[in-house]
Amino acid sequence: MYIFPIKKSWVTLLAFLLVAACARSPESQKARHLESANRYMEKHQYREAVIEYRNVLRFDRSNGHAIRQLGLAHYQLGEMAQAYQYLLKAEELVPTDLDVRLKLGTIRGTRGGRVCSGPRARQHGRSRAPWERGHDSPGNR
pTM, whole model, 2 decimals? Predict the structure, then answer.
């Protein structure tokens, strides 16, 4: 006789918990991605860190920490063109960051000062940073 009301309350509770878990605020999602990205960087798992930092930029396009760390992660992966774009933006945000300036100098030195330039880069849209092309904005996902 009381079995049905008990089952109904459990189903209601389960449905409520499911809705609550799915309805995270954008700020909490950004914080979760940032925390994951920082952990990946500490473990030298740069590919995973890149994914998470890009997720952060989906919520906050001007997050200086994510921009800087994306540049450093791409640098560690040997992806110098991508690293250069993010590190250049990070240098604009914090010109006194010596690590960023050192990495930029290294990239410029190994590439003869030419990174992401020339007709071929412009043809493929690489002359602008990803956030300037709109790839990391929340509205484009």
Answer: 0.66
